Every structure is written in structure tokens, then in C-alpha cells.
Design the sequence.
């Protein structure tokens, strides 16, 4: 008895049986069928036989820029939950934001024949991309969007727009952006783009002097950038920070300068760090669901390891909805009695780009190659609300 026979009896693909045996995602209906066949046949998978057959050593390398970062630790938490449940051990490499060290670990993992690698990247260079493309084993890039590499990334642009729009709706007209280097496409370029486009959409003139670039991502970097900006004595009434840690440094400097938050200056950020809820004053921050991203990256890598049919797939949650229906479901799932008024896109003046009438994505290739479809979007929303501990 082998997994091909189990798959035939359960009327599922061998990839689905493999995911079931490795605690990957399988629909409840198929899970019950596979379990019933295993109980009837008394099948017991052999780990040693699997190693000999597949040539895998059940090791996954995870490269992180800074393990002390809360967003990184959330990603790693999600990654390890999935890959450990699938029978893999994790080799964790902490680079301290050193790009040369990242290259060394990528080479080390390749030489030691790990089954796959998840790389949480920040400053991606041509050398990084060339090395990743040369990998013979599966590799997933997290936190950055690059062509020709399997990626799990976040909506940094959208998060920045939300954070900046919050300041605008509170009446701010002179908004400082404490950002990071544009070499970082996500936290740097995408978040600055969201800030700039929100100003333009609200007819607020861009002023170069309101951009303050931090030397790094630490609280001290945020303090230094905020202090340097205050020395210029430029009037401002709002601050959008690229990250929560930068925001904490900025808040300390503003407080020591006698500037009251939010009475005199309002401040927002991206990350939803747990400290933001207990910091005084509380920090308004946009969550990027880092742990869920880690879960998805881990699941993708496990699937890639267990099949040779990996490549670029469209993978979105199942189901369809309008933005109005999405908003209604958010309030329903959160237990909030809120009346939502639908607004047609033609009535929204800030929308300069023509919106498509139908923006559904085909995911047939997932089914064609034996991959499980993702759960319904309502399920994903429910998990997100749990993650932010609403």
C-alpha cells in the first residue's frame, strides 16, 4: 500500500494525500475520505522510505533580517507552525540586516541541500535575485515582490494610503513622512508611494521638505530622524511613519519637545505592533497580518517541495464580493451593528484610474495540477480578525 493507492481509493490526487499526511491544508470532505481509507487499510507511512524515495532531508532554511523585529517574529511563528506540522525542521539564519550575510546563508543552505528556503528580504539586489533564480530547490521570498521568484508579500502601498488618509480625515494638511530607503521596495518605495498618492488624491501639495528618511528601522533611527526634522522648524500637524518602531522613536522625541499627541500633532504608522496598544499615547497603526503571511509562505513552500509542478500561480481566496459586501462582512464578523451605504465607483472622485467591471482571477491551474484551492474569503477574514485580536 502506498499513497498512490490511498489516493485512488479516496478519489483524490496524490498531492492531496501527501498534504494530509504532512498536516497541510486539505478540505474537510477530502480529509474524511482519506482518513477513512487509511483506517480501513491500516496504512502507516514510513519516514525512512520517504527519505530514500524523495531524496529529502526534511530541513527548511529560513533567512530573516532581524529576529528581534516583531513583524519578523510573527512571520517566523506562522512559517514554523506550518512546516513543523508537515514534518520539517527549521534552520533559522539571522542576518542583522546585512546583505552580504544574506548571500552567505543562501549559498550555505544550497550547499547543505536543504529541501527549501524561505527568505524574508528587505534590500534586494541583482546578486540576490540571480542567486535565488539559480536555486535547484524551491525558494519563497517574503515581504518583497520580485518577478520570476515565488513571493508572499503585503499590501504596503494600500497600508500607507490608509494610514495617510486617516491623518487627512483628521484635518491634517502638513504631513511629515518618516520613511526608509527607497532601495527597500516594500517599506520604502511602496509606502512612500501610498503617502504621496493620498496627498494628491486629497489635493494636498507635495512638499519635499516634509520627507524625512530614517537611517534604518530601529526606534533610535526614528528618534534621530524626528529630532533632525524638528531642528528645521517647519510647521507640521501630522506624521506618517513607515513602521511602528520608527513611530515609537518619533513619539519620544515629540513628547520631550513638549508637543502633545494627538492634540497638536497626529501620528500613524504601519505594522500594528503589540506595543502600539499599550504605548502612551496609543499608536494608530495599520496591520499587515504578518503571521498569516508566514502561514501562507510555509504552506506554499511545503507544496513546492512535495511536487515538481511549482511555478507562478494565481492563488486568491475562493468566492466573490464587492467592496460593499466585503465591508458588510467585516462588521458582521466583528459583531458590530453598522449600516453600510454602497457607493458606486463613478461617484468616487479620487478614483482617477478606470476600474474593471470584472476583476476575478482564474485559479484553474491550481486544480489542474492537484493543488487545493484556498478557503473562502470569509474564512480568511475571520482568521485575520482573530490575528489582530479584535
Sequence:
Amino acid at each position: 500500500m502506498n499513497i498512490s493507492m490511498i489516493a485512488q481509493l479516496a478519489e483524490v490526487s496524490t498531492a492531496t494525500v501527501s498534504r494530509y499526511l504532512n498536516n497541510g491544508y486539505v478540505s474537510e470532505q477530502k480529509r474524511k475520505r482519506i482518513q477513512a481509507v487509511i483506517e480501513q487499510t491500516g496504512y502507516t507511512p514510513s519516514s525512512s522510505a520517504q527519505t530514500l524515495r524523495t531524496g529529502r532531508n526534511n530541513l527548511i532554511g529560513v533567512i530573516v533580517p532581524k529576529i528581534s523585529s516583531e513583524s519578523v517574529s510573527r512571520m517566523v511563528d506562522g512559517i514554523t507552525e506550518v512546516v513543523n506540522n508537515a514534518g520539517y525542521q527549521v534552520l533559522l539564519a539571522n542576518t542583522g540586516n546585512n546583505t552580504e550575510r544574506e548571500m552567505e546563508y543562501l549559498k550555505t543552505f544550497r550547499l547543505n541541500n536543504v529541501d527549501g528556503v524561505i527568505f524574508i528580504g528587505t534590500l534586494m539586489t541583482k546578486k540576490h535575485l540571480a542567486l535565488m533564480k539559480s536555486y535547484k530547490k524551491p525558494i519563497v521570498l517574503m515581504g518583497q515582490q520580485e518577478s520570476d521568484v515565488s513571493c508572499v508579500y503585503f499590501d504596503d502601498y494600500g497600508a500607507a494610503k490608509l494610514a495617510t488618509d486617516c491623518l487627512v480625515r483628521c484635518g491634517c494638511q502638513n504631513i511629515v513622512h518618516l520613511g526608509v530607503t527607497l532601495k527597500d521596495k516594500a517599506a520604502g518605495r511602496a509606502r512612500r508611494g501610498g503617502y504621496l498618492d493620498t496627498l494628491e488624491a486629497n489635493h494636498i501639495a507635495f512638499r519635499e521638505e516634509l520627507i524625512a528618511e530614517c537611517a534604518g528601522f530601529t526606534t533610535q533611527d526614528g528618534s534621530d530622524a524626528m529630532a533632525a526634522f524638528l531642528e528645521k522648524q517647519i510647521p507640521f500637524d501630522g506624521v506618517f511613519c513607515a513602521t511602528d518602531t520608527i513611530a515609537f522613536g518619533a513619539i519620544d522625541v515629540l513628547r520631550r519637545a513638549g508637543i502633545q499627541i494627538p492634540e497638536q500633532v497626529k501620528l500613524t504608522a504601519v505594522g500594528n505592533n503589540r506595543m502600539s496598544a499599550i504605548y502612551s499615547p496609543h499608536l494608530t497603526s495599520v496591520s499587515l497580518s504578518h503571521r498569516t503571511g508566514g502561514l501562507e509562505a510555509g504552506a506554499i513552500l511545503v507544496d513546492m517541495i512535495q511536487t515538481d509542478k511549482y511555478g507562478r500561480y494565481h492563488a486568491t481566496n475562493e468566492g466573490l464580493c464587492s467592496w460593499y459586501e466585503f465591508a458588510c462582512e467585516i462588521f458582521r464578523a466583528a459583531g458590530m451593528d453598522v449600516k453600510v451605504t454602497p457607493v458606486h465607483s463613478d461617484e468616487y472622485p479620487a478614483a482617477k484610474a478606470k476600474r474593471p467591471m470584472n476583476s476575478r482571477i482564474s485559479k484553474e491551474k491550481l486544480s489542474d495540477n492537484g493543488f487545493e484551492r484556498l478557503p473562502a474569503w470569509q474564512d480568511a477574514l475571520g482568521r485575520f480578525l482573530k490575528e489582530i485580536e479584535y
The longest helix spans residues 185-201. The chain has 16 helices and ten strands. Residues 69 and 150 are 23 Å apart (CA to CA). The chain has four domains: 3-45, 54-153+290-310, 156-286, 313-390.
